[in-house]
Design brief:
Elements: E1 2-6, H1 10-22, E2 27-30, E3 49-52, H2 58-72, E4 77-78, E5 85-86
Antiparallel strand pairs: 1-3, 2-3, 4-5
Amino acid sequence: MTLIYTRENKLLVENARNVLRMNGIETVMKNEFSSGAAGDLAPLDTWPELWLVDNTQLAKAQKLIEQIEVQANGDDWRCNQCQELNGSAFEVCWNCGAAAN
């Protein structure tokens, strides 16, 4: 197994895991519930980690994670259906479910 993604925010790690799963890439999350140990352990040691099960999928997994990070740093967009402002990481409107333009 290979560590492919870790962040302080568990939601970011879960999002990466979901994107990889949707693309047929199996992963295991470690340190999922270890944030309560911060203080006894170094904070970095308590971050959730995403580990790749099949190392032959490493290049594909890294490319998908890179795409997630590029998209997350993009511009916010306004929904054509309900005019709600959505973060760049959203592919559908969080308010009404309409697809991004």
